[in-house]
Amino acid sequence: MAPAGGTAVHDHVALAEIELCGELIIAASATDGDRLSPDRIDEVLRVGEERAQDAP
């Protein structure tokens, strides 16, 4: 049990990774094939969107 007084630490990076893993699991369960293609994985993880934001 966590101590009283709000001493729990929130790791935002870990929470973001958990969310992305969940999105991959949902996408994988919705596919008819055995595996997600690399392009579909990039789409689910929004890889292209992040690259576009980093571009000047």
Strand residue content: under 5%
Q: How many H/I helices?
A: 3
* Helix percentage: 55-70%
Give the overall pLDDT as a whole number.
81
Low-confidence stretches: none
Order of helices and strands: HHH
Alpha-beta classification: mainly alpha
Counted beta strands = 0
Note the main sheet.
Answer: none
The radius of gyration computed from the alpha-carbon positions, rounded to a whole number of angstroms, is 16 Å
- What is the first-to-last residue Cα distance? 47 Å
Description:
The model has no long low-confidence stretch (mean pLDDT 81). The chain has helices at residues 12-30, 38-44, 47-54. It starts with 11 loop residues before the first helix and ends with a helix. It is flat and about 35 Å long. The chain contains three helices and no strands.
What is this structure's SSE topology?
Layout: H1 12-30, H2 38-44, H3 47-54
Main attributes?
56 residues, Transposase
Short overview:
The chain is mainly α. The chain has helices at residues 12-30, 38-44, 47-54.
